[in-house]
Amino acid sequence: MEKPFWILCITHMMVEVNLLIQVALIPVIITEFKLGLLEASLVATVPSFVQLVMNIPAGYFAERFSPRSLLFASMMIEGLSGLLASQTNSFWTLILAIALLKISSPLYHIFGLSQVSRIVKPERMNKAMGFHNALGSFGSAVGVVSLSVFLGTLGWRWTYFFWAFPILIWGTVLLKSKDLGEGRFEKKDRKDRDGLRGLSFIVSYSFLVFLVAIAVREVGATGSSTFMTTYFVRDRSLAESTASLIYGLGPFVGIAGSLFGGYFGERTGMRRAFNWMVVGCTVSLLMMFFASQLYVLAALYALYAFFGSGMWSPMNALVADIVPAKNMGMGFSIYFLTDGITTSIAPMLVAAVIEISVASIILPFSALFMFLTLIVFHFVPRSRN
């Protein structure tokens, strides 16, 4: 694969370093700032709402600005917001810092994925998406594992401080890279950059039903990921650093899951790969609910993370398959907008459910929504743009 593809993959890794840190910190935030679970869930919902709002303008930017400028801006926002988070002593300032940090995600993802879909041949799309997601999983993994290290030593703020510098340095490298020149990426003719005029081609019946399936899936995935460390600490009585360490195993296993998802999708087709990944998530979540021993629970969580990460490759490939090539930037924008709406609402919903029951309720709750995803996805017609 070409060098620009690997540049995108490394940038994806940097963007995802901070992805799971704030949700892994929820038990710590509750204790440090003396909050209830619903209040603490704002650390997930408010930044998700900001990310949601950014999805449409990010799609616009992806079609109009140079690769160098967009990727540099994404890294600068990520790094500087991390520095702000590392210096905060207020819960609300922390939310502000993480909200600003979340701007970098749609700024990269919508541009990055649309470009991957353009520079990679269709028959290699699943595998390419697998490699791309694997680098993102690696970034998430090292971020959460470094959090567990700093929690036991210097304190959680040092995690954001530590990662800010390599992110800012990589941004500078991107700005100076000759591999990101205009000629290295396929650009659309200006007459095709019609913004909302292209929506009639994007919002087809197939894409709408697919978006509903993605929203249902995200309710289950967000419920389990946001409050997994809370479950480990509250119901399993683990230390916060231990809970973060186990949680950090998920993204590491997710590297293998991402590569497997890409390979499996290439061999069996993206639809079948997506279905099997959802089945794997559903079964492993239900088995976790009944697990009594800690090592069995950890192994099942790793299995769930494997299938959860493996799901992203066929999902992203399905977007590239359903949406017309000339509207790919806006297509990924709507895709992430749907994802963002769900991730903005789901944490508050799940927190309310936990408050009237127990943290372990997230396991059957998430499994139910994964099962419903299979039902909705069944109604997505087979198509090829």
Gist of the model:
By secondary structure, the chain is an all-alpha fold.
Would you give an account of this structure?
- It contains 19 helices and no strands.
- It is mainly alpha-helical and 385 residues long.
- The chain has a single domain (3-377), classed as Growth Hormone, Chain: A (Up-down Bundle).
- Mean pLDDT is 80; it is low at 183-196.
Which descriptors apply to this entry?
79% helix; mainly alpha; Growth Hormone, Chain: A; 19 helices; single chain; 385 residues
Topology, pairings included?
Elements: H1 3-16, H2 21-24, H3 26-33, H4 37-40, H5 42-64, H6 67-86, H7 91-102, H8 104-119, H9 125-151, H10 157-176, H11 199-202, H12 205-226, H13 228-234, H14 240-268, H15 270-290, H16 294-310, H17 312-322, H18 328-355, H19 362-377
Domain count: 1
State the secondary-structure class.
Answer: mainly alpha
Q: Residue-averaged pLDDT, rounded?
A: 80
Number of helices: 19
CATH superfamily: MFS general substrate transporter like domains
CATH class: Mainly Alpha
Give the helix proportion (percent range).
Answer: over 70%
The CATH architecture assignment turns out to be Up-down Bundle
Low-confidence stretches: 183-196
Order of helices and strands: HHHHHHHHHHHHHHHHHHH
